[in-house]
Specification:
Strand order of the largest sheet: 4-3-7-6-5
CATH superfamily of the largest domain: PPM-type phosphatase domain
Radius of gyration: 46 Å
Strand content: 15-25%
Largest sheet: 5 strands, antiparallel
Number of domains: 4
CATH architecture of the largest domain: 4-Layer Sandwich
CATH topology of the largest domain: Phosphatase 2c, domain 1
CATH class of the largest domain: Alpha Beta
Structural class: alpha+beta
Shape: elongated
Number of strands: 17
Helix content: 40-55%
Distance between the termini: 94 Å
Length: 663
């Protein structure tokens, strides 16, 4: 299979996501394999004289680092590649071909084991930021090294003999674990925190590390001086980045391995013996890595935590000072609540802050401070809200949160408040206007239901607000009666004004005017108002002959009027396809007859919402109410239908009118 550039390459490998600034996948792949080859050769070339094993094996760390940069599905490609590049150094070291192949396979297995542990089940690029990350790295390093050791020892036992196998069993695992811990972290995601040391301090620290390392591994053979290395490296762990520390530890390992293999320093192989010297050197390097990386990660996390806290505090101070709402930090001192800090908005709301007044009682008044203190005294955590009225009659909406003073440990309370005095005044004015408009609208409704010989009538109007969009009207001039019910789109003041205008336009028609002409006339009168406000009105207009029981009606998009048949108890719905006022200019007149005991019921869609939300639900509710109540007065029936309106807060206007012919 060919990739985008024509070379043989698994699809998607070049697109694998690597950390920002990393080499491309292909470059990294070949560069790492070349490094494994060269370091494997170098490690064997610098091994102690007459010894079959090397002093250290950093190639294991590079191989594992390469595997970490790719998803696990590419291990099938990486493992054979590592096996191939580690084979030539083994052959160059005059190892028999079967043994060289076995050791190369062991190196590939070692890489696979480490990669599986570090990439985990989620198969994500591993990072080295927390001590938990480092614990996983330690587990992967020792597990992979032990697996390599067991495979290599088994190969030596079969191909080279017991003595050689024992030597590998003792020496292989430490040097491979050290190679992984020294090199693999450089391939992982490290915390991008900034160093504390400047350039001069860094140069001084590196120079000291080099000097001490040279003294320990090239000059002296006094073992206790090995601990001198911890001095400059602890300096690096606390002042430099983790990556810089890793590079210095790697530099120490290179010098230490070289000096020990050449018979110099505290772990000289010719003095301690190759096996003992190699083991001591690797244990020392493992100790260095474990202690110093743990220290560096801990310091880095503390530094990052401190930076986050500083950024958070800076953001808090910025928000505190720039907030358009008043902000106070208050504390209880000597039995009195005092302001520690305030912003400009708080000073604008409480002008005495500019005069240096800090006592809450002086700023808010005794009663407001007592109410606020009661909340703060019982507030252990979280926040609370309350409304206060100051002694200057200012109304404040206050949010209180308890925070701890990191210097004294005493509780400090953050107050976030807004002056709502003007908003409350405007709201009261609007409320008063709505109530007055509601009174006017209610005054336009029929004050008393007219008395009609041989007929009864009932009506209920329950607006959703003080001013509603529903309206009804009843006019009587024997032998005719006019009943109308309408619903203006929307609620509130605007809908109420249009409802009153529609009622007035309908009332301008005479009793002799047919329903279709009456509705058309009202639509003509309201045309400009409806067009300007983009509103419409659904309407039912009924003209009834009280002598014969005949009625004529127009349905302008309303569709919620019913015939209640007294003889059978059936409920029949009357509807048309005509559109509301504001959307149509032509309406069709329909006719019907009310027999003795029959009734005509007109309702608004608010009652339909209370009944279930559909016309069928409303039809069923009306039928049930008529059947359960039996022979009751028309007003009782209407009130029973609309009973839920007084119990429901979030609802539409509810209006119903009924005209019934006596049996």
């Amino acid at each position: 299979m060919r990739g985008n550039r024509g070379e043989w390459w698994p699809p998607g490998l070049l697109r694998d996501r690597l950390p920002p600034g990393a080499l491309s996948a292909a470059t990294l792949f070949f560069a790492a394999l070349l490094a494994v080859l060269l370091l494997g050769w170098l490690s064997l070339a610098t091994r102690p004289a007459a010894q079959s094993f090397s002093a250290w094996w950093p190639a294991a760390g590079i191989a594992l680092g390469l595997a970490l940069r790719f998803p696990r599905r590419y291990l099938w490609l990486l493992a054979p590649a590592v096996c191939l590049v580690t084979l030539p150094p083994q052959l160059w070291a005059d190892r028999p071909l079967p043994l060289a192949i076995s050791l190369s396979v062991a190196a590939a297995v070692e890489m696979v084991v480490g990669a599986l542990i570090l990439r985990g089940r989620s198969d994500t690029f591993p990072s080295l930021v927390t001590l938990g990350d480092f614990s996983r790295l330690l587990l992967a390093a020792f597990a992979a090294a032990v697996v390599y050791d067991l495979v290599a020892t088994a190969a030596h036992l079969v191909l080279s003999g017991r003595a050689e196998a024992v030597t590998w069993l003792v020496t292989a695992a430490p040097k491979h674990a050290a190679g992984i811990l020294l090199v693999t972290p450089l391939f992982m995601g490290l915390q991008p925190h900034s160093r504390l040391a400047g350039r001069l301090e860094t140069l001084m620290q590196v120079a000291l590390t080099l000097a001490v390392t040279a003294y320990v591994f090239l000059i002296t053979d006094d073992l206790p001086v090995s601990f001198l290395l911890f001095v400059p490296l602890v300096w690096a762990a606390t002042r430099l980045t983790t990556r810089q520390l890793l590079l210095q530890i790697l530099m120490v390992a290179v010098i230490g391995s070289y000096g020990s293999a050449r018979g110099r320093g505290i772990f000289a192989f010719d003095r301690l013996g190759p096996e003992a010297g190699s083991i001591l050197l690797q244990v020392f390097e493992l100790t260095l890595v474990t202690v110093l990386i743990s220290l560096s990660l801990t310091v880095g996390l503390e530094r990052e935590t401190a930076n986050r806290l500083a950024r958070s505090e800076g953001l808090f101070r910025t928000n505190f000072d720039a907030s358009v709402a008043g902000q106070l930090m208050v504390i209880l001192q000597a039995g009195a609540w005092r302001v520690q800090k305030h912003n400009a908005s708080a000073a604008a709301i409480l002008p005495r802050l500019r005069q240096g007044v800090t006592g809450l009682e002086d700023l808010l008044g005794v009663d407001a401070t007592a109410a606020l203190a009661a909340v703060m005294n019982r507030l252990a955590g979280g926040n609370a809200r309350l409304s206060l009225t100051t002694d200057s009659e200012r109304h404040l909406d206050v949010s209180v949160a308890a925070v701890a003073d990191h210097l004294t440990g005493h509780p400090v309370f953050a107050l976030h408040f807004q002056d709502v005095t003007e908003a409350l005044r405007v709201r009261r004015l609007e409320q008063a206007e709505l109530e007055r408009a509601g009174e006017v609208q209610r005054a336009l409704l029929p004050e008393e239901l007219p008395v009609m010989p041989g007929w009864s009538i009932g009506a209920v109007s329950a607006p959703a607000r003080q001013v509603g969009g529903d309206f009804y009207d009843i006019r009587l001039r024997l032998p005719h009666a006019v009943i109308s019910l309408g619903d203006v789109m929307g609620k509130g003041m605007g809908a109420g004004m249009l409802a009153a205008a529609t009622r007035a336009a309908l009332r301008s028609n005479t009793f002799e005017t047919s329903p279709d002409r009456a509705v058309a006339h009202a639509a003509h009168v309201l045309d400009n108002d409806l067009s300007r406000t983009a509103a419409f009105v659904t309407l039912t207009y009924v003209l009834a002959d009280l002598t014969s029981g005949e009625f004529r009606f127009v349905d302008a998009g309303h569709g919620l009027h019913f015939i209640l048949r007294g003889s059978s108890g059936r409920v029949e719905r009357l509807a048309s396809e005509d559109l509301p006022l504001g959307l149509e200019s032509l309406w069709h007149e329909r006719r019907g007859t009310l027999q003795p005991g029959d009734g005509l019921l007109l309702v608004s869609d608010g009652l339909m919402d209370l009944s279930g939300g559909t016309v069928d639900d409303l039809h069923s509710a009306i039928s049930t109410c008529v059947r359960e109540l039996g022979p009751v007065s028309t007003q009782t029936l209407i009130e029973a239908l609309c009973a839920q309106a007084e119990e429901t807060l979030d609802r539409d206007d509810v209006t119903a009118v009924a005209l019934r012919r006596d049996p």
